[in-house]
Amino acid sequence: MERRKFLLGAGSTAIGASALVGSGAFSFVAAERDMSIDIVGDEDAFLGLEATSEYADGTSNGQLSINFDENAGVDGEGLNQNALSEFPNVFRITNQGSRLVRLMVRADEYLGPDLPEEISLPIEAEGTLTNGRLGGMEDLNWSGRGGTSTNDAPHLGPGEAINVSFRFELNDLSDPQTVYDDIEAIDALGITADEV
Amino acid sequence: MNRRTFLGTLGATAGSALIVGTGAAGFVGTERELSVEVTDDNDAFLGLRQLGSGTRSYEDGTPERVAFSVPGLLERIDDPDRGLGTRSIYEFVYDATESTTPGLLRITNQGSNEAVTYSEFETETNIDVSLFDVTDPDRIALRDQPAELSPGEAVDVGFRIETFGADLGAFDETLTIVGELTTT
Fold first, then answer.
1. Does the beta-carbon distance from A40 to B83 stay under 8 Å?
2. What is the count of residue pairs from A and B with beta carbons less than 8 Å apart?
């Protein structure tokens, strides 16, 4: 190629390319950005979970576990059939985040890969707000179970906690053994805190 | 375009360039002017701007790039023990301490054509991170339903972090934010 022509061509290319870039016509951008994530035990998590009875412990990889079976820290190994059993203040949930949240404790909600999509059990979790509000009212007990309206759920502000109790109603069932098998099938509770 | 396909194409192109450089003519060396400016994330064609003052998202470095921290940098100072629980799904719509403006990151199409944006996240730690439009009541992940942005348009996004199967610990991860042209 003649040198003069070559330079002319190069100049055209440069201007053309520059103009193209300047027009902002990107076709694909993939920007990699750093992200630091700390995963901690339940007691220190944004949604703090703390064992407060022999029926709960937090030793399994920092995860709270609730045990109404032979793993409970008591002599008994399970629930009585055909009975109503209540366990007060089994564990505590603390809002250790920065915003007001609406709290739900459910046994029938899918939350992750370890739970079947539908579980329906006569299990009930209830709590008393220690320093919180319930729909703008204070010092009220809250009782929630699967399917309850989210409007009934307690609200926890930053630093506020709720003690969760359990009630198992196995006294009005024609076939308690079937229910017992279902309870064995529970391997997790879904605890949900939604920002409000 | 599928990202894997795109990267594959890039590799093939690079291979072609190599062939040209070692061409049969013995040696050909030509230079062309190429004007490239690497700018702050705020001013890039795919504009990235951190939102809120709680330092879960922030901008750092020269040129400035957005980065993310959960807990936020200030939260880590206030309580070094704080963090995410395991076997959980966390969604962050607001930065820490932020109460009025939702979103941790604003993605703006500062190019000249219609584009979509979404995120990608790959790790060996079982953590999963996705972005969602904070105005979407269903909070569908952008990687499943990319946000469509005309030139000048922006989407404010929050984070969903899933910790199922993840161990306790501190993890340094990389979040990829993609802008992809949809019209020419």
1. yes
2. 189
Per residue in A139-164, pLDDT tens? 233 443 333 334 456 777 888 887 77
How many CB atoms are located within 10 Å of the residue B169 CB?
Answer: 11
B42 vs B19: CA distance, rounded Å: 37
Is the Cβ–Cβ distance between A85 and A72 less than 8 Å?
no
Binary contact (B174, A44; C-beta < 8 A): no
To test the contact with chain A by mutation, choose from B46, B66, B86 the residue with the greatest count of A C-beta atoms within 10 A, namely B86
pLDDT, tens only, B85-140? 988 889 999 988 766 889 999 999 998 899 999 999 999 999 999 999 999 999 99
Radius of gyration of chain B (CA): 20
Outline where DSSP puts E strands in B10-84: 46-50, 57-60, 65-70
Q: Which of B104, B112, B107 is nearest to B48 (CA)?
A: B107
Q: Which residues of A touch B96 (CB under 8 A)?
A: 97-98
State the nearest Cα–Cα gap between A146 and chain B, in angstroms. Answer: 19
Q: What is the pTM of this model?
A: 0.73
> Beta-carbon neighbour count of residue B52 at 10 Å?
22
Is residue B61 predicted with pLDDT exceeding 70? yes
Paired tokens of A16: 């053309």
- Asked if B112 is an interface residue toward chain A (Cβ–Cβ < 8 A), one would say yes
Phi, psi of A90 (to 5 degrees): -75, -45
Q: What is the largest CA-CA distance in chain A?
A: 100
Compute the distance between CA of residue A195 and CA of residue B1 in angstroms, rounded to an integer: 35
Q: Which of residues 163-182 of B touch A (CB under 8 A)?
A: 163-164, 166-181
Q: Which amino acid is at A69?
A: D
Asked whether the beta carbons of residue B54 and residue A98 sit closer than 8 angstroms, the reply is yes
